[in-house]
Every structure is written in C-alpha cells, then in structure tokens.
C-alpha cells in the first residue's frame, strides 16, 4: 500500500491546520456540554426521587392544574422557537434567528411569571415545611434557577447575534446555549408529571 | 510564531435546507403538543388510580426522546445528525 509522500505546500499546511482546529473544537465543545448535561440529569433525578421517597404518589388537592399545564405549553413553545433560531443561524437566516430568540426569551419570561404565581399559591396551601412542599419548592426552585440562567445566556447570544457575531460557519455559541435551554425543557417534562400529575 | 488566518466565508443561503430543518422542528412541536394533551387526558381519566404512573410513563419518555432527538440532536454525538 502506498501513501502520498509529496510534501504539502505551506498554504495547504495552513489550511489543514485551521481545518483541524475548527473541526475539532465544536466536537470537543459538544461532548463537554453533553457531559455537563449528563451531570445535571443526576442532580434533577435525585430530587425527583426524593419527592416519591418522602410522599409517594400523594399530592395536595389544591394544585393549580390549569396554570401548570399552561406553563408547560409555554416552555414547549420556547423550545420550538429556540430550535428555529438555531436552525436559522445555521442557514444564515438572521431575521428568523432574531425572531426565534425573541420569542424564546418572551416565553421564558412568561414561564417565570407563571412559576411565580405557582410559588405564591404554594406558600399558602403547601408551604416548604410540609413533606410535599419541601420537594415542590426544591424542584421548582432548582428548575427556575436553570430557567433564569438559561435566559441570561440566551440574552448574551441574542445581543451578540444582533451584532453579527454568529453565522452559518460560526454558531457554536448559539447551539450550546440552545441545547442548554432544551435541557431545561427536558427537565420540566419529568418535573411536571412528578409534581402535578402523579 | 503566530499566523493570522482568515475566517471562512459564510456558506451560501440554502432555502430548501432551512425549510426542511424548520419543518422537522415543527413536526417535533406538533408531536409534543399531541403528547402533552394526551398526557393530561390520561391524568384526568385516571386521577387517583394505581395504573396512572404506568399509563403516563410512555408519554413522558416519548416527549423526552423527541426533545433529545429532534431539538438536541443527540445522534450528532455518534455522527448520525447535522
């Protein structure tokens, strides 16, 4: 078997080096982000398990089911708009990118308003000192903290995007933040039935 | 020694590719909506019943998989996506 023995010229060498560094980096970043997400899964799973350990499938009768369903829908919409924003920047559609991220931020804000109302009602009906209340406040609080940090990251990406920082060949920043936002949605897919339905 | 390397040119606009990817996302959204409504209907029917946990589990897992696969591109980790 023969191999190409001709020495590469300088331009080819530079290009090869550039290609290697940029091709490797997003892959390394992706794996790093997935490892972080994986560690977060354990954090949420431990508190989900604690809810069933402390109260089984018992839950208070005065949970606001309509509001919980509404905030679930709001968060799902935010995930779709975040996906569309990421897709738009991958295909250099800046207008849709801005619209997508704006909708995501708005939905995030709406979600937080809904959660604030829920927390206010929770302090009246099942305060943190009760068994169910401790799981409820811990899970809702932990998730809300992730929503707020996700919104903060989305806002940074939004501002950088308006300034033209991202494009079809440079969108890792958007992808990373949007992936984190999807994880926040994924966590809620498990938290919602754990706290409200079961 | 450092070398200044030019950033690559932006890729040409691919309207068909964008439309295809956007439609994929909207299908994911539609399925999530259907499953969320289904989950709530099952809850209203089976509230307080012993089988509720088992009945809700497929809805939860399917929703999680749609988010992981469609939105988070988990298959990109082993090179099937993107």
Order of helices and strands of chain A: HHHHH
Name the structural class of chain A: mainly alpha
Q: What's the helical proportion of residues of chain B?
A: 55-70%
Overall mean pLDDT of chain B: 80
- What is the global morphology of chain A? elongated
Task: Kindly report the average pLDDT value of chain A.
Answer: 84
Total beta strands of chain A: 0
Tally of individual helices of chain A: 5
Unreliably modeled segments of chain A = 1-8
SSE topology sketch:
The complex is a heterodimer of chains A (about 200) and B (about 80).
Chain A: H1 10-55, H2 65-90, H3 94-125, H4 131-162, H5 172-197
Helix pairs in contact in A: 1-4, 1-5, 2-3, 2-5, 3-4, 4-5
Chain B: H1 15-46, H2 52-71
Helix pairs in contact in B: 1-2
Written overview of the protein:
The complex is a heterodimer of chains A (198) and B (82). Chain A has 198 residues and is mainly alpha-helical. Chain A has 5 helices and no strands. Chain A has a domain at 62-197: Cytochrome c oxidase, subunit III, four-helix bundle (Four Helix Bundle (Hemerythrin (Met), subunit A), Up-down Bundle). Chain A has helices at residues 10-55, 65-90, 94-125, 131-162, 172-197. The longest helix of chain A is centred in the first third of the chain and has 46 residues, at 10-55. Chain A is elongated. Chain B is mainly alpha-helical. Chain B has a domain at 36-82. Helix content of chain B is 63%, strand content 0%. Chains A and B meet through helix 1, helix 2 and helix 5 of A and helix 1 and helix 2 of B.
Keyphrases for this structure?
heterodimer, A: 198 residues, Four Helix Bundle (Hemerythrin (Met), subunit A), 5 helices, 82% helix, disordered N terminus, B: 82 residues, 63% helix, elongated
């Amino acid at each position: 078997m023969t191999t190409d023995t001709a020495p590469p010229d300088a331009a080819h060498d530079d290009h090869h080096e550039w290609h290697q560094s940029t091709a490797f980096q997003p892959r390394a970043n992706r794996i790093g982000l997935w490892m972080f997400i994986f560690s977060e899964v354990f954090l949420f799973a431990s508190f989900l398990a604690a809810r069933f350990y402390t109260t089984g499938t018992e839950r208070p009768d005065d949970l606001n089911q309509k509001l919980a369903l509404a905030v679930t829908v709001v968060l799902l919409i935010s995930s779709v708009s975040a996906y569309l924003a990421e897709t738009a920047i991958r295909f250099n559609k800046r207008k849709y990118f801005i619209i997508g991220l704006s909708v995501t931020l708005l939905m995030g804000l709406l979600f937080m308003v809904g959660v604030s109302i829920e927390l206010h009602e929770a302090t009246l009906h099942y305060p943190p000192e009760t068994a169910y209340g401790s799981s409820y406040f811990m899970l809702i609080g932990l998730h809300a903290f992730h929503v707020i940090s996700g919104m903060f990251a989305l806002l940074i990406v939004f501002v950088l995007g308006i300034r033209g920082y991202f494009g079809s060949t440079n969108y890792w920043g958007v992808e990373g933040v949007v992936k984190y936002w999807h994880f926040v949605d994924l966590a809620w897919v498990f938290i919602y039935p754990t706290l409200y339905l079961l | 020694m450092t070398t200044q390397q030019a950033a690559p040119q932006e890729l040409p606009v691919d309207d068909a590719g964008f439309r295809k990817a956007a439609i994929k996302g909207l299908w994911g959204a539609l399925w999530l909506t259907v499953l969320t409504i289904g989950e709530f209907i099952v809850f209203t029917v089976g509230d307080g019943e012993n089988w509720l946990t088992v009945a809700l589990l497929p809805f939860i897992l399917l929703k999680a998989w749609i988010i992981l696969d469609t939105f988070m591109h988990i298959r990109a980790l082993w090179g099937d996506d993107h």
